[in-house]
Amino acid sequence: MFSQHMIPHHRQAIEMSDIILGKQGIDSRVTDMAEQIKAAQGPEIQQMQSWLAGWGMPTMPMTPGAAGMPGMDGMMSPADMDALNKAQGVQASKLYLTQMVEPHPGAISMAQNEIKNGQFPGVIALAKSIVSSQQEEIDTMNQILTVLGAS
């Protein structure tokens, strides 16, 4: 269940990162964060898909733009994604960071549950990595938001 729920979280984060990377006038700290998220979460998706395939379980596919899956903590709604698509410049940077901070606690909670109750060492190791990396990302994004808010 952990991998099935984490994959859509990661896919949406990559989709949001692609949106922000496609815009002009975005703060370099924000584009650096978007690149970092894509670089980390893309391989994690592949690993989780591999595990699910090996276990004969579906991956709960999510197509680009299919935000707001019911029952998924922290997923952006279609309206949230539309707002990000329409935003420009500093407003887009702030919106991206705010929207990225929102799902991270849900992902951390899912990962902590997997650490506590998981059965497979590889999945537990990934969950530990997600807790650490996403908390670090939250801290960095909040720092960038503070700087952007002051500018």
User: Could you tell me the number of beta strands?
Assistant: 0
Our measurement of the CA-to-CA distance between the termini, rounded to an integer number of angstroms, reads 42 Å
**CATH domain fold name:** Ferritin
C-alpha-based Rg, rounded: 15 Å
Report mean pLDDT, rounded to a whole number: 89
By secondary-structure content and strand pairing, the structural class works out as: mainly alpha
Oligomeric description of these chains: single chain
- How are helices and strands ordered from N to C? HHHHHH
CATH superfamily: Ferritin, core subunit, four-helix bundle
Major sheet attributes: none
Helix count, DSSP H or I runs of 4 or more residues: 6
Query: What fraction, in percent, of the residue positions are helical?
Result: over 70%
Give start-end ranges of low-pLDDT stretches: 62-71
Overall form:
elongated
Q: What is the fold's blueprint, element by element?
A:
Layout: H1 2-21, H2 28-54, H3 78-86, H4 89-101, H5 103-117, H6 121-150
Question: Could you describe the 3D structure shown?
Answer:
With 151 residues, the protein is mostly helical. Helix content is 75%, strand content 0%. It is elongated, with a radius of gyration of 15 Å.
